Amino acid sequence: MTPSNTSKSEWLLKPQSSARTAATWGAAKVAAGLQNLRGNLRANGFGILMYHRVVARVPGIAVPTNNVSPDRLRRQLTGLLARGFESWPLTKLVDAHRASRTVPSNVFAVTFDDGYENNFTHALPILRELNVPATIFLSTKYLDSDQRFPFDDWSASGTNQAPADAWRPLSTGQCDELLASGLIEFGAHTHSHQRFIGRSAEFCDDVQTCLDILRDRFGIERPTFAFPYGEFDAQLVESARQLPLACAVISKNQRVESGDDIFLWGRFHVSQSDTAAMVAAKLSGWYPLLATTVRSLAPRLAWAPPARIACAHIDPLRYEEPLPAIAVSRKATPR
Ligand SMILES: [Zn+2]
Q1: Please, which residues bridge with residue 138 across strands?
Q2: How far is CA 220 from the centre of its chain?
Q3: Strand, coil or helix: what is 12?
């Protein structure tokens, strides 16, 4: 893998041409169908999902792509479980990887970046309801702050346009309760969440501060780690390797295969527009394969896509699916 990074999601976050948007949408739908018909493309490895905020839509305010509503989160996770996917804690996947144990191909892990209060107020009840474990990667400098994260680019953050738990960082007390739930693990996300490309010495100091706080406040030793902004280079990866970290995750939309570098594990960005079928298609390996193919072909497309599709941006309401009747149904491993 090339040690560089571009954006949180190569599929949905970049401004795209109409042809690419339509092609990506088509790939998502085809991939979802293939996952439904054929099961997972890959026989080994697993997928990691990346979330940020879990908040209801605020009328009249533009929603950034890293907001997922509680209802959408519940539908995504319920749909995955109903399709036979099984959620594991990230540390269990680290242990399996280090022991060279095979991980069933239907396994996935849930992660949240930064440490928003809504992970406690909105995500935890859903995770409890579905018995889904998750990792929250904390930027420790902002714990207990009543200010917005300085890197938060959502226009409603820090204003009274959105409820405070939509943008406020977690408090230490909330973190204690999250840990007490038995479902939540904390990972490191640096202390100050800066851009560290080309600044490996500062990176090491900052991560060490984060590690000290995780250890002193929560008793966590050797946590998992997520690069802030998903940004990394060869020096940062090597620096992370030298620190007492269990693994490092990035934001590249790909499954983790058995031979992958444990300090470069990919994650799938999950957005509000993703139905459970589309998240399943991402985890299954079908979506990455098809999306890569259409992205390479889309610039050459001479046709103009139908306006309805070109403007759709994968409208979640238009492509919604019914919520499965059984909330938690762990079926046999998909093929
Ligand atoms: Zn972050």
Answers
A1: 114, 188
A2: 22
A3: coil
Q: What's the DSSP call for residue 59?
A: T
pTM for the complete prediction? 0.81
CATH number at residue 284: 3.20.20.370
Range of the domain at 86: 18-310
Within-domain flag for 163: yes
- Taking the chain (335 residues) in runs of 10, the rounded mean pLDDT of each run is 38 50 71 71 84 91 84 97 96 95 93 98 98 98 97 90 94 98 98 97 98 98 97 96 98 89 96 90 79 65 38 31 35 36
Q: Looking at the domain assignment, is residue 334 inside a domain?
A: no
Measured distance between the N- and C-terminal CA atoms of the chain, rounded to whole angstroms: 28
Give the span between the Cα atoms of 288 and 194, in whole angstroms: 29
Inter-residue contact 166 to 55 (CB < 8 Å): yes
Domain membership flag for residue 327: no
Report the alpha-carbon distance of residue 168 to residue 159 in Å, rounded.
10
Q: 231: CA distance to ligand 1 center in Å?
A: 10
Structurally, the chain folds into a number of domains equal to 1
Distance 283 CA to ligand 1 centre (A): 21
The two three-digit tokens of residue 276, written as one number:
């459970």
Q: How far is CA 288 from CA 31, 56, 81, 97, 284, in A?
A: 9, 28, 21, 22, 9
Ligand 1 centroid to residue 49 C-alpha, Å: 14
Residues paired with 50 in a beta bridge: 111, 269
Residues in the 5 Å CB sphere of ion ligand 1: 113-114, 228
Q: What is the CA radius of gyration of the chain?
A: 19
Nearest to 270 by CA among 152, 78, 111: 111
